Amino acid sequence: MAKPEHLFDRAVEWDALVSFASRPGATARLGIVSGRRRMGKTYLLRAIVEQLGGLYFGATTATSGESLRQFGAAIAEHSGAEVPISFDTWDHAITYLFGLAARDHANSPFLVVLDEFSYLVKSVPELPSLVQREIDRYQTEPSGMRLLLCGSAMSVMGGLLASSAPLRGRAQLELVVQPFGFRDAAQFWGVAENPALALRLHAVLGGTPAYRRQFLADDVPASLDDFDQWLCRTVLSPLSPLFREARYLLAEEAEVRDTALYHSVLAAVAQGNNTRGGIAGYIGRKSVDISHPLAVLEDCRLLVREQDAFRAGKSVYRITEPLITFYEAIMRPAWVRLEDGQAQQVWARSRERFAAQVAGPHFETMCREFMLGDGIDLLGPEAEFGDVGCGIVPDPATRSQIQIDVAMTHPGDGGRKPAVSLLGEVKWGAIMGIGHTSRLSRARDLLAAAGWDVSRCRLACFSGAGFSDTLRNQQDDTAPPLLIGLDEIYGS
Ligand SMILES: Nc1ncnc2c1ncn2[C@@H]1O[C@H](COP(=O)(O)OP(=O)(O)OP(=O)(O)O)[C@@H](O)[C@H]1O
Ligand SMILES: [Mg+2]
Questions:
Q1: pTM
Q2: CATH code (residue 98)
Q3: Beta strands of 19-170 (E only): which ranges?
Q4: How far is the C-alpha of 479 from the C-alpha of 472, rounded, in Å?
Q5: 125 shares a domain with 54
Q6: Pocket lined around ligand 1, Cβ cut-off 6 Å
Q7: Which of 230, 299, 423, 455 could cross-link to 221 by cystine, CB 3.0-4.6 Å?
Q8: pLDDT tens for each residue of 90-135
Q9: Is residue 18 domain-shared with residue 138, that is, in the same domain?
Q10: 10-24, 206-220, 243-257: segment of lowest average pLDDT
Q11: Which residue's CA lies nearest to atom 30 of ligand 1?
Q12: Does any domain span residue 239?
């Protein structure tokens, strides 16, 4: 079953869905599809229903009764009935749906997609139990039901399979539709030939598919020189739907009404105050007072907590959605001016902040992603997979700390010491030189003294701007530092 042309990437997701929906078998099966807003869940599921046939129902925010009427109409349309089926209750509707699958599709798969299931559950909380009852019933009676429940409120969708939830242990497929990776995003936007532009674009819009066509009607920066103008006419323009998108994302994803505290937390992280204590200090609250917003933001996957590679129990928070970082760092402080149409003036004064708070940290994340993917090959064919992260190496002699942007580590076990196989420094806008590698080798010595195995540890410089001649000339050494530029990272 070939993936349609218009569906970019998503080959793995497509295959998983096709196999779920078409594999023969006479018992009912359940799948859960989730993912943050605008990632292309509906696009993918509609494509699959178009190809395989079946019933698609997209719920809206509506009362239980209204949704029930819409559902009755959708089933009638699917079965070719002239008048909508009128259900008294959701119990009735779900029983009918499974009955239909058993009656007409006992021996062949029948794909049913309930999209925006999280909306439905909000007005019909008993829905998961009703589905569970029918799924269980059709484990012993023949049914071709292939039911996909899809939704974007991560808290609701994740909750469906939580330990005490009725659907726990019933799903044969759990698919999370993720943003495109940075290489795919560059292809999607048609800028893969221009890594410098692709990097900037990704630092602002990330890998969200909806932003290209649905939001910007294919307005893509024509060249690196056009990037500033493009920003001013899109994200920074009050006429563009992207202008308020970061705010909507927070309101919709986290389902929070009082967003002020949440924005302050995100602003703290965006500005580099990314430890729990740092966030609390930035917004002037006690650590315990920010536990709830942190938990909510983690739950809906807008924040992730990353463990320090070298110091057990230490961690930092990172914002997962680039547009939110961009909003908090660049737009929110200048909101009134931007609403007034002063995009050019605001952007002209934001370059440094963009470099320090948006593009720099974003490029570090990309470099870590690269090392989790193809980058491992740079360490040789024998290199073992390790954890990739960032961390801090304390330097007692100078009472300072060395920040390591990319580290690959391997946990110790039994007789084996923990090992580090890569220490890397990332600079997105600066030419890198000897100073960077000597800091890294100092960190390597300190780690060795602290009991790490550094015998296979390579040093690496990741630069978006290039490397000094002195650094390039060091390449004659036996184990020279790896110099990794945008071409390597983008595989171009
Ligand atoms: N794989 C893809 N290839 C091309 N375009 C895509 C792809 N996925 C998504 N899009 C674009 O993104 C838009 C938004 O996708 P879609 O509505 O499916 O997102 P969603 O995850 O269902 O969002 P929501 O949670 O808000 O319902 C689509 O209309 C389409 O333009
Ligand atoms: Mg959708």
A1: 0.94
A2: 3.40.50.300
A3: 29-34, 55-58, 110-115, 145-151
A4: 13
A5: yes
A6: 7-10, 35, 37-43, 152, 209-210, 213-214
A7: 230
A8: 999 999 999 999 999 888 999 999 999 998 998 999 999 999 999 9
A9: yes
A10: 243-257
A11: 210
A12: no
